[in-house]
Amino acid sequence: MSRTVYETATSLDGFIADQDNSLEWLFTVESEPEDEGHGEALDRTEEFIRGAGAIVMGATTYEWIHRHEGGKPWPYQVPTWVLTHRNLPRVAGDLRFTSADTDQELQDLHADMVRAADGRDIWVVGGGRIAANLARLGLLDEVSVSVAPVSLGGGAPLLDGRVRLKPLEAKLAGPFACLRYAVVRD
Ligand SMILES: NC(=O)c1ccc[n+]([C@@H]2O[C@H](COP(=O)([O-])OP(=O)(O)OC[C@H]3O[C@@H](n4cnc5c(N)ncnc54)[C@H](OP(=O)(O)O)[C@@H]3O)[C@@H](O)[C@H]2O)c1
Asked: For residues 176 and 41, is the Cβ–Cβ distance under 8 A?
């Protein structure tokens, strides 16, 4: 059965992008030689992303990827839903632009993703409002974060809403703390 997993990197103070929507703070985190052998948790993250059967993200996240890929074909083979109210620039690939302004629309979208994923997991890339809304509707199973050793003081929140979680796993992966939580359904 498909699991719906919010898999992302975050700052220690809970931001997935800084106030300028930049990820530079993430890419400048460096491993130390003594971190070698801590790669298992990051391998699991890569394996999750490779195995996902559907992807969902918001417009800001899509625009970031689009800018950084410089018009190259979409890097993921599986269907990707982009939530937006605008006409965003397209690239080649299975991209599905849509909006989901009501709970019913978000539930319908999730049902479409489950069908497309056909038993594989659904990767919620971000942002934090989409992940929190899926959790509120009982549609998010897991939050899996790689916590970078940096604080930002502001930016795009990891989870924009109240979500109760149950810890599943905590591992070091180089300079990152990889934490997995199950979403507690009320
Ligand atoms: N650290 C990481 O690993 C990581 C992972 C993911 C993202 N990020 C970064 O984090 C930031 C996230 O940005 P963000 O918090 O603004 O979130 P976002 O979800 O990427 O984008 C928010 C925008 O998406 C559209 N949207 C969201 N929900 C919608 C819905 N239900 N229906 C229709 N449109 C909807 C709206 O745009 P419009 O109405 O204007 O179309 C909204 O302003 C980005 O800078 C991204 O690059 C970092």
From this structure: yes
pLDDT for the residue numbered 161? 97
CA of 37 from ligand 1 middle (Å) equals 34
Q: Model confidence at 153, in pLDDT bands (50, 70, 90)?
A: very high
144 lines ligand 1 (CB under 6 A): no
Q: Is any ligand 1 atom within 6 A of the Cβ of residue 127? A: yes
Give the model's confidence band at 61: pLDDT under 50 very low, under 70 low, under 90 confident, else very high.
very high
Ligand 1 mean position, distance from CA 167 (Å): 26
Give the pLDDT band of residue 43 (cuts 50, 70, 90): confident
175: left (phi over 0), alpha (psi -120 to 50) or beta: alpha
CA-nearest residue for atom 17, ligand 1, is 127
